[in-house]
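Final report, closing paragraph on structural work. Over the funding period we assembled a curated collection of sequence-structure pairs, and we close with a single example.
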Amino acid sequence: RPSYPTFQKIGQRLLEIRDPASIAGSRRLRLSVLSSFNIDPIKAYLEVGCLERNIWADVFIPGYKQFAQMLLSGESALYAFKPDVCFMHLNVEALIARRRGLSLQVEDIFSTLQTLRSLIAAFRQHSTGDLVISNFVIPSRFPFSAKPNPIVQGYASLNDQLKTLAQEFSG
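Its predicted structure, as stored:
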């Protein structure tokens, strides 16, 4: 595979092409990528990867950690963009509103699921596009643990609840 600078150069050249119809046989797709971390470098990869498959991708990536504002406001730049597909990549910690120390409490799990439900519902209300939520990276067990760890147990419970939520909203 080419290096990232090569992808950047190709991505820059794509920006200079104003008419996707000039690329024979290409389809047009509007992609948005929301995240709780800096994901800007993925834009060039998406554009070039789509073009390799004869898809002209318009890619929208809002600023760092703006996923909630973008999803909850019907007047946001996300909905003005009108994505066909919206990818949401979040570290689960961005959704957890911890009130006490490091351990993950039942209330934190409930609050996290409610936050995620409200983000999904807002997208469904304001967009006709598809929402793709990445697998959340949640440690299910820590190495070198000799006894049950409440943090591990909390994350395992949250992981199970996220699987149930995914089934609830799939389709």
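The radius of gyration is 19 Å. The longest strand covers residues 27-35. We thank the funder for supporting this effort.
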